[in-house]
Amino acid sequence: MPHESHPHGLPTAALRVDEGLVCGDDQLYFPAQLGEPQFAATDETGRHHYTVTPRFRRVVAEWVAITVEATSDHLRFRWDGDELIVIDDDALDDDGDPTSGPAVERIRPDADGKYTFATWLWHVYDAAAEHLDDTTHAALALLATDNLLQVDTVIRYVAANTYPAPDPQTLHDIRHRHRTTANPPVVPSRDTDVEEPHDE
Prior knowledge:
The chain has 4 helices and 8 strands. The chain has about 200 residues and is of the alpha+beta class. It has a 5-stranded antiparallel β-sheet, with no helix packed on it. The chain has a 3-stranded antiparallel β-sheet with strand order 5-6-7.
């Protein structure tokens, strides 16, 4: 049953009622519907760590892919219609043939249109871990919508909270590449790189 109030002290517009925040190791937070948290470990400070299998809406899955591609030296992504293709240049395809290409995984949306990165490790938000600043609040509020127009806000959030910090232009370029290689919608979307406003 969804919580009646948002966790983490976030403004009501910054997080959907049925979603929480998850992050990868030393990376930024993304909103997702959460599975049941599983205890993972306790660190030297006594902080408990849990893992979850989150389910992401399409717009959030897009930004997960953009962020990871911008900071990884071996993972690439592209969209094939509604399917997200993950290309791992450090792993061989399943046949084990050393002359074969990189490993390719297709992430398909579930019946609710949500995406699951099943083999990835995610952590739930720990309210004691850090203060979420205004840039984070603004970006999460945009990610709470399904029509993300002001991408500069999200790019600032990604650049400021991701390690190693990606160049903002690189994030723009990856986003443009992902959108131009995806099957275009039948009706042109308002959310295009040409029309979207820059909120400098």
